[in-house]
Amino acid sequence: MTAWLARRVAASVAIVFTVVTLTFVLVHLAHGTPCGQPDGQPLPPETCRRLCAEFGCDQPLVVQYVKYLAGLAHGHMGQSFGQHRPVIDALGDAIPNTLTLAVAALLIDFALGLALGIYQAARARRFGDVALGNVALFVNSMPAFWLGLVLLLVFAQWLRWFPVGGTHDVVLCPALDSLRCAGDRVWHLVLPALTLGLIGAANTARFQRAAMLEVLGQDYVRTARAKGLSERRVVLVHVLRNALLPIITLFGLAFPFLLAGAVLVETIFAWPGMGRLSVTAIGQRDYPVVTAAALIASAMVALGSLLADVLYAVADPRIRTRGE
Amino acid sequence: MPTTRPPARLPAVVALASLVFLAGCERRGGCSGDYCGTLVIASAGEPDILLPPVSPASVTRDVTDQLFLKLADLGLSGNTIGDEDFQPRLAERWEWDGPVTLVFHVDPRARWQDGRAVTAADVVFTYDVYTDSLVSSPFRSSLRLISAVTARDSLTAVFRFRERYPEMFYDAVYHMRILPGHLLRSLPRDQWRSAAFGRQPVGDGPYRFVSWKAGESLELAADSTFFLGRAPLRRVIWRFTPDLQVAITQLIAGDADAVEVLGPPDNVKRVQAAPQLVTYPYKGAAYGYLGFNLAAPGDSTKPHPLFGDRELRRALVMATDRERLLRNVFGDLAKVPPGPMAQLTWIWDPDLRELPHDSAQAVRLLTRLGWADADSDGVRDRGRGGERLAFRLLVPTTSAIRRQYARLLQEQWRTVGVDVQLDEVDFSLFNERARKGQFDALLNTWNTDPTPSSGIPQSWTQAGLGRSNYGRYVNPAFDRLVDRAVESAANREEARRAWRAAIEILNQDAPAVFLFAPNNVAAVHRRVADVVIQPDSWLALLRTWRIPGDRLTDRDRAER
Amino acid sequence: MSVWTWLALAGAVVAALAVVAEVRRRAAASAPGRRFFRHPTAAPGIFVLAFFLAIALAAPLVAPYPWYLQIDIVHVADRPPSARFLLGTDLYSRDVWSRIVYGARISLGIGTLAMLLAVTVGAAVGAVAGYFRRWVDTTLMRLVDVGLAMPRIFVLLLVVALWGHVSVPLLVLLIGLTGWFGTSRLVRAEVLSLREREFVAAARALGAGPTRVIFRHVLPNAAAPIIVSAALGIGNVVLLEAGLSFLGFGVPAPRPSWGTMIAEGWPKITAAPWASLFPGLAISLLVMALNAVGDALRDALDPRKEAA
Predict the structure, then answer these.
(1) Cβ neighbours, 10 Å, residue B148
(2) Residue-wise pLDDT tens digits, B381-438
(3) Domain boundaries in chain C?
(4) What is the strand order of the sheet B101-106 is part of?
(5) Quick check: C75 contacting B, CB < 8 Å?
(6) Which among B256, B19, B215 is positioned nearest to A186, based on CA atoms?
(7) Residue B439's pLDDT band (cuts 50, 70, 90)
(8) Rounded to the nearest 10 degrees, what angle do helices C134-149 and C96-132 cross at?
(9) Among candidates B40, B191, B249 on the partner chain, residue whose Cβ is nearest the Cβ of A171
């Protein structure tokens, strides 16, 4: 088990490295040095000299790459041109926001999705199943940014139940005690998390329903029924445990989806996370931030799939003994 | 046992609901009285760096105007000639010591926010920075007629001019915000654009800097020891929004108290329907235009393959129905400018001669120049190489108005056989490309000074090359008339005549299509009293706005 | 909307119904076909797809106005839906319905072409990896892992921004080349199991080279997952293209990509919500139809159900 885990982790690290290298090469081919670029913000000569000394400007690409990696090891990711401060500071502000949104969205996704999927499987092919199935299909097909716009329009602009964007009330929150401020933050979190979570839930519900229906047809379920156990116990104890396995793969897929959806949703809700930072940085040709964002994004994706694999191995003993 | 799922969720739901409920609860206590108000300004633009010499952005100026003082400021009359209509700020009084010498007496009560006294040495230092070529301030050319600034003693600064002209006093006081020499002297001049001071400034104005969260908010707090009187609004906070639409939604929802410019008529209607807001119309200090690049993109020594041709530019201007475009975007909240001027500029004259809107003549002109649609693809071309009448239009994504104009112009010019593709880029990228001349045409807006004397030379004469004259338009006859209007005009009437002649020459050369000069409408929450908006800089008199003690809301009372 | 455009619209509806009827008739002949239509959403899905295809093909007939025409920017901008403007006008006084009709061309066109490219590359890579195994397999699958690790929209934004401005063909190429990784894994799995079957051994015994074996014998039998992946893939591409266009990095204005329409309508969302709502609805319906058909195909072509 540990050997397999070690191999998987090593593979993930290798993948992240490859992604960062590719981004590095791509970006440098397009624009050149870490300071003097053809159409981005220029840096003053002194900062340029300092950055060039640290990251190498006239040296071959390989040397620059090595210096960049060395810098990474020390936590130096360069200077952001757009924000005039170290990249690591900009990331440090953005990452917690994205994680908060992702966790909240995942909670809604799996709570709602599992519940729906189970309900649908229990009422298979009857009206409740068909109606919910169509609704889930529709929600799953919506563009995330469009759903966000609709929710924003209805609940924030027309009904005024929720705020229009941002993570918290910049005026009131610092003055409130931490409990009320947390409440304010949750209030701001609802719409963006719902946007991502609803679409994910629709997808999860479909998978869960299918998985449960498949398991429900299996022999051991008939055995359980024959033994006289109540339907509810059969469903929740025996079927669910086995039908959860495919869901774990969904969990691994959730990370890339959240990152992709997050880019658009963060832009709409003015959520200062990695997605919005990336889009702004790309628009400003803020290359150090872009490279760093690629690193973080691919690390998150790799982490997600690694986590999914580990969970799958833990849950399914067949995987463990077989190894990879 | 199997039924644990639904009930287990209930406590969590209750907890969540109570958190949300608590967040909205009203709170008593906190600050009370007349010095409590908190003003939240929703802004689509964010400052780049809070150092006045290096940033021309208007939202930066709004913030730095609360942190730093000028020697004197323009009164509400907007008269920029002579010195009678100016109000003392950092300088408590001044006098003329000869025809080209101006002496300012710095107010002895003025203090930097770290405790040190403001001295004439700071004034000298500031002038030095503003005119330093390494700092490369956009205001540098406005100060070109000042030959020297010296300190006679610790509280007396002496300005010497190269010659005598009507707006000497204006040039001496309007452009420079006095900076703390003791804090900035050691900063190398070529590092000003990224100085740490610019994110944590120390000034001498009515407000102190508190915090700046990039992309979110910027907060200032009133300095209770400010020598011209404590500002009644205790806190001023800018909230940055992705665009104007969100800013107005926040305003209407009560998350913000003020917005500088509401923009299109739809927004004004929305705000007027909200009972807690008051709208304040004021003369706009901005004008927008489509500027042609007369030089080849990226190579200023060669003329632009299309727009180097004066007749082609004239044809395009004549093909544009500016009135209709304006009606679509602004309704009746703007006017078509008769030249490079805003409604606030005193030379505004709708009778100035311009090129008329005449599509038929434009088409005739284009055909005469050899542009015909040989391959019937809807786009004119000429020559054996099939050179197409096609170009790219540079637009910043941050301005909804300019993006709207871009699409309208695209379609309007398509009907005369011109193919326009849009380059919609981030605002900082837009500025870079504009500065470097890497564009065919761009949609730009200038916030003008109350007098054309600083804006027009910067943007349309030879002196503006490499600065704000992005299109590289140069006409010596125009430059001469502008110089005459600025420097040697003995009185207003002569200046007006010179300006008129100059603008009419520029209009005939058609370096740009002058599209809109908006009437500004600001919106401020009803509870804010004594709102006075200075048209050239809407927050210049912020320190006189107040929220009376009987109109406080939760936000006003919240202690930091 | 004139009489002729109403007729054309009705014609599109009739054509779509006819397609459904025809497909149903032909499908009734085979077991997979019958399984396909057992899904309650399969027939509506085919109808919606056929309808969008019909209006995309007959756009000049169905759309009352050209997609670029600003009818009267002073008087007809931001009009609500009416008899003259079926879905209202946007802020440039362009007919929303006409733009949606022409936008169907963009969505279906980019969706189909990019998906074809992705599926072709993915199937080829997956087949090669599965057939040759060993180091070929390892290298290619590592490449696929890297591809899956990189968030797709991020890569596209980066490339588009670096390039400056992308033409539609280049956009198709980029979207296609970033979307083949999942398909290659699926195909590889199929090929790995298929290559042990008798007909492969027989083909090789007869002297067929690897290429022939892969393309004539293995891939046709792996068709099921490829087809399902293709149907679902178009939906993803449509959503991706809409997202890119919404951010301003996709199909350039004034072309009526549905994503661009949503973005352009957003500043006027309170004054003219129809300009953003209807394009979003169109995207949702199209993707929903594609998902429904994909799901039904998956169940229909599922070999485990062959016995039923």
Answers:
(1) 13
(2) 988 777 899 999 999 987 889 999 999 999 999 999 999 999 998 877 888 889 889 9
(3) 3-69+81-305
(4) B91-96, B101-106, B156-161, B146-153
(5) no
(6) B19
(7) very high
(8) 150
(9) B40
Interface membership of B429 toward A (CB under 8 Å):
yes
Q: Which residues of C touch B422 (CB under 8 A)?
A: 252-253
Question: Which distant-in-sequence residues (6+ apart) come within 8 Å of A50 by Cβ?
Answer: none
DSSP-assigned states of every residue in B326-387: HHHHHTTSEE--SSS--TTSTT--TTS------HHHHHHHHHHTT-B-TT-SSS-EETTTTE
Q: How far apart are CA A154 and CA B172, in angstroms?
A: 53
Tokens describing residue A245: 């396995």
**Joined tokens for residue C132:** 């040759």
Segments of B44-124 assigned E as strands? 72-74, 86-88, 91-96, 101-106
C74 chain-B contacts, CB cut-off 8 A: 324, 327-328
Q: Over chain B, what is the mean pLDDT?
A: 88
**How far B360 CA lies from chain C's nearest CA (Å)?**
19
The DSSP H or E segment spanning B142 is none
**What's this model's pTM, rounded to 2 decimal places?**
0.84
Nearest CB neighbour to A175, from listed B2, B436, B558: B558
Cβ-based contacts of B216 with chain A (< 8 Å): 166-167, 170, 272
Residue C247 at interface with chain B, using a CB cutoff of 8 Å = no
CATH topology of domain C3-69+81-305: MetI-like fold (1.10.3720)
Write the DSSP symbol of residue B485.
I
Q: Compute chain B's Rg from CA coordinates.
A: 26
- Of C68, C267, C271, Cβ closest to residue B400: C267
Judge whether B459 and B340 are in contact, CB under 8 Å: yes
Contact B445, B288 (CB under 8 A): yes
Query: Dihedral (C-alpha) B500, B502, B505, B506: value to the nearest 10 degrees?
Result: -110
- B559 touches A: beta carbon within 8 Å: yes
Per-residue model confidence (pLDDT) at position A77: 79
Distance CA B380, CA B315 (A): 13
C151–A259 CB contact, under 8 Å: yes
Which residues, listed in sequence order, are joined to residue B529 by a DSSP beta bridge?
Answer: B546
Whole-angstrom distance, CA of residue A165 vs CA of residue B20:
16
Of C112, C120, C2, whose CA–CA distance to C52 is shortest? C112
Q: B39-59, pLDDT tens digit by residue?
A: 999 998 888 889 999 887 788
**Mean pLDDT, chain C, whole residue set:** 87
Give the separation between CA C267 and CA B248, rounded to whole angstroms. 11
If one counts every other C-beta atom within 10 angstroms of the C-beta of residue B252, the result is 22
DSSP state of C79: P
Q: What is the ipTM of this complex?
A: 0.86
The Cβ of residue B73 has, within 10 Å, a number of other Cβ atoms equal to 19
Give B360's contacts (C-beta < 8 A, 6+ positions apart): none
pLDDT score of A64 more than 80: no
Which among A16, A27, A153 is the nearest to C273, CB-wise?
A153
Partners of C77 on chain B (C-beta within 8 Å) are 328
Residue with tokens 């600025």: B486
Contacting chains of A (3 CB pairs or more, <8 Å) are B, C
B299 lies within 8 A of chain A by CB: no
Residue B135, both tokens: 């700092």
By Cβ distance, the residue of C73, C165, C264 closest to B328 is C73
Number of residues that make up chain B: 560
Contacts of C237 (CB under 8 A, 6+ apart): C110, C111, C114, C115, C118, C175, C179
Question: Do residues A78 and A87 make contact, with C-beta atoms less than 8 angstroms apart?
Answer: yes
Tell me the chain C residues in contact with residue A23 when contact means C-beta distances shorter than 8 Å: 158
Name the residue of chain B whose CA is nearest to A79's CA. B194
